[in-house]
Amino acid sequence: MHNIHGEKIKPKNYANAGFVGDFFRTAVNAVLMPGVTVGSRSLVGVNVVLEKDLDRNKSIFVKQELVEKNWNEERYG
After folding, report:
1. Residue 35's domain is classified under what CATH number?
2. Structural domain count, the chain
3. Residues 6+ positions from 72 with CB-CB distance below 8 Å
4. What is the spatial distance between Cα 38 and Cα 55, in angstroms, rounded to a whole number?
5. Per-residue confidence band for 73, with pLDDT thresholds at 50, 70 and 90
6. Largest Cα–Cα separation, the chain
7. Which residues span the domain enclosing 30?
8. For residues 20 and 42, what is the distance between their CA atoms, to the nearest angstrom?
9. Is residue 50, in this structure, part of any structural domain at all?
10. Percent of the chain residues past pLDDT 90, beyond the cut
């Protein structure tokens, strides 16, 4: 339940809206999908596509794994 301008609103009634709490932050290329709620004082990290709600005072980041392989002129085929 959210209190917006004195009106109580349930997020599930607004499937295309996003709800964010006070003092939340997003990094570059962060995407909040429709219907997602982000709690107060939370952080959405770089390149995160947030598809579920994030509780207050939480952060979420992408864990990146680098893969190195051989590459040469034969691969250009």
Report:
1. 2.160.10.10
2. 1
3. none
4. 6
5. confident
6. 66
7. 2-60
8. 9
9. yes
10. 53
β-strand pairing of 37-38 with 59-60: unpaired
- Do the domain assignments include residue 51? yes
pLDDT of 59 above 90: yes
Contacts for 3 with CB less than 8 Å, ≥ 6 apart: 9
Please write the tens of the pLDDT for every residue from 15-34.
667 778 899 999 999 999 98
Half-sphere exposure of residue 69: CA atoms within 13 angstroms, side-chain side = 4
**Residue whose tokens read 């509780």:** 55
Q: Is residue 37 part of a domain?
A: yes
Q: How confident is the model at residue 48, as a pLDDT?
A: 96
d(CA 5, CA 9): 10
Determine the pLDDT at residue 14: 58
> How far apart, in whole angstroms, are the C-alpha atoms of residue 13 and residue 36?
12
Which amino acid is it at 17?
A
